[in-house]
Amino acid sequence: MPQNNEAQPPAPGASGQHVAVLGGGSFGTAMTKVLAENGHTVHFWMRDEHQADEIRQTGCNTRYMPDVKLNGDIRPTTKLEEAVANAGTVLVAIPSKAFRAVIREHSQAFRDGQIVVSLTKGIEEHGFKLMSEILVEEIPRCRIGVLGGPNLASEIVSRDLTATTIAAKDPDVRRELQELLGCEYFRVYANVDVYGVELAGALKNIYAIIAGLASARDLGENAKAMLITRGLAEMSRFAVSLGANPMTFMGLAGVGDLIVTCTSSKSRNFRIGYAIGKGKELDDAVAELGQVAEGIYTLKLVKEKSEAIGIYMPLVRGLYEIMYEGASISAVINSLMMSVQNSDVEFILPRTISQ
Ligand SMILES: NC(=O)C1=CN([C@@H]2O[C@H](COP(=O)(O)OP(=O)(O)OC[C@H]3O[C@@H](n4cnc5c(N)ncnc54)[C@H](O)[C@@H]3O)[C@@H](O)[C@H]2O)C=CC1
Ligand SMILES: O=C(CO)COP(=O)(O)O
């Protein structure tokens, strides 16, 4: 029986460390705030000089977090080399579409043994690479980790109680990150299943779009529970076939993140689904959002990959038909509800249980 490796957090560690956060959007800002409040110096990299200057002068990142004041030793910069050179640990919150390009362009800035953690919940278009795989390819001499879990940035900046999962192969990396990030409102669990934690974070965005769409159509609470549960079955079937630990999907990075994004309009992916459900064009919905919704791109890649490896993903297929093939929402719902494939048993029991 696979084990769930979500280890309990150690006590928060010593403050006063130097950390770099790459990416000046919502999540980079939220994690900068946690780190600074934990007493660390944060070298906060973003590409926009105006934004860096505003944070320097006022402590506010109004474009992404208009009502949030950032306190503590935060050093905004547009020089990535400088941020990385000054830090022991680097957190990367850059959308998946730009992730490799940014790391590759600055790969020489990273030092041997430096801890580099991806916060990004997406998949690279060519080759179905996850962000930690990109880090291993581009900066192999660094120690790599990923962060997953139900972590809405807008709640973290309000100090709402939150748990997260850090995954890394190296136990020292897991412990260091737990100590660095953990505090009274941010509880950090550890997991060894890097691939599962990271893939779960990317996959749940698809089901958040579906849940938003269902909400816009007023499909009801039973439908919401059905979609979340069957979404979990579908995403774990896919991930396990690619090597993830099934128990990861029972944890914060799996079902935890799925629940929060499928039930909250604070999720950008949920909001995209809601807008489409209300009849908006995708491009208009994206423009109105003004932030990244990774699920839009992940959907295409997962649909192609699932077909290539023969994994049955009816919800992915249905959303793809709606978003990219112009199918009507009601026709897709009807076809999913009336499908006979795989509805005779809810799941296949392991041999040891069914015998
Ligand atoms: N916001 C949230 O609640 C959470 C977000 N994440 C993940 O974090 C990643 C980043 O998301 P957010 O910060 O929320 O997105 P966002 O849309 O709020 O901000 C994206 C940031 O990336 C920057 N950026 C885009 N292209 C860039 C490039 N080529 N070079 C440098 N910077 C670039 C933008 O200027 C912006 O500052 C995503 O993969 C998301 O799924 C993960 C957990 C929670
Ligand atoms: O990953 C997230 C919460 O854990 C954020 O989700 P959205 O990108 O949909 O806002």
UniProtKB/TrEMBL annotation:
Its main location: cytoplasm. This is Glycerol-3-phosphate dehydrogenase [NAD(P)+]. It is found in: Cytoplasm. It comes from the Bacteria. Keywords: Cytoplasm, Lipid biosynthesis, Lipid metabolism, NAD, NADP, Nucleotide-binding, Oxidoreductase, Phospholipid biosynthesis, Phospholipid metabolism. Catalyzes the reduction of the glycolytic intermediate dihydroxyacetone phosphate (DHAP) to sn-glycerol 3-phosphate (G3P), the key precursor for phospholipid synthesis. It comes from Marinobacter confluentis. The gene is gpsA. Sn-glycerol 3-phosphate binds at K121, G149, K204, D257, S267, R268, N269. It catalyses: sn-glycerol 3-phosphate + NADP(+) = dihydroxyacetone phosphate + NADPH + H(+); sn-glycerol 3-phosphate + NAD(+) = dihydroxyacetone phosphate + NADH + H(+). Residues 1-20 are annotated as: Disordered. It is an enzyme of class 1 (oxidoreductase). The lineage of its organism: Bacteria, Pseudomonadati, Pseudomonadota, Gammaproteobacteria, Pseudomonadales. The active site is at K204.
